[in-house]
Amino acid sequence: MPRLFSVALVGPDGSGKTTISRRLRETLPLPIKYVYMGVNPDSSNLMLPTTWLLSKVKRGLGAEPDTRGPRAIEDAVKPKPKNPVKRALVEVKSGLLLANRIAEEWFRQALTWFYTRRGYVVLFDRHFFSDYYAYDIAPTPYRKPWTRRLHGWMLMHLYPKPDLMIYLDAPAEVLLARKGEGTAEVLEDRRRAYLEMRAHVPHFALVDATQPEDVVLRQVTELILAYNRDRRVPDAASEQVTHA
Q1: I need a surface site. Which of 8, 66, 115, 199 has the fewest CB within 10 A?
Q2: What is the spatial distance between Cα 208 and Cα 172, in angstroms, rounded to a whole number?
Q3: In the chain, which ranges are E strands?
Q4: Based on C-alpha coordinates, what's the Rg of the chain?
């Protein structure tokens, strides 16, 4: 049985990732396994028991689902307590949460290897590399906490990138009209970050997500099928593809 490959649909909320993922599972003429590869446990179809437990504890303590949209980079870093005991406890908690996050990410990657070796295309809705790129990987004007630096280094240098990443692109005003989450400034910053990722992903494609849904689906399907054909050619050139 030939080993197949992974495809990640990435982009901000409102770009249509989940909708296109669902339709691909119904129409793509290749065997598919779907894996949610994002940061929201409420949307995950597979997770470690520890991640499930942490999510339940968080909800039990009254935390609401995060529907604020993307945060500004500087808002993602919380100030450390001045009290040394509280600061030490915060560091321990951060380390434990990071350990679980990394374990969760490698668990889903292990499932990906299992599925591709069994002859499935693994379809990612989001990807950890893209979700954390702006916060943990890309350079920032401030010094990141050690947990973010370590996590970003792992994602950049150790964690496998998807074989094909398809970015569903839309300007901030379209995303705000669709979802109403975040701000125009933050959404445009995240858009620039998504475009920067093409330098780090071997096969990166862009699709205009402002087009009608059927057109987006057709173009994404064509990209996946073309990648499947090209990967069988021994000396095929690895080129970035863009649909305007």
Answers
A1: 199
A2: 13
A3: 6-10, 32-36, 121-125, 164-169, 204-208, 241-242
A4: 19
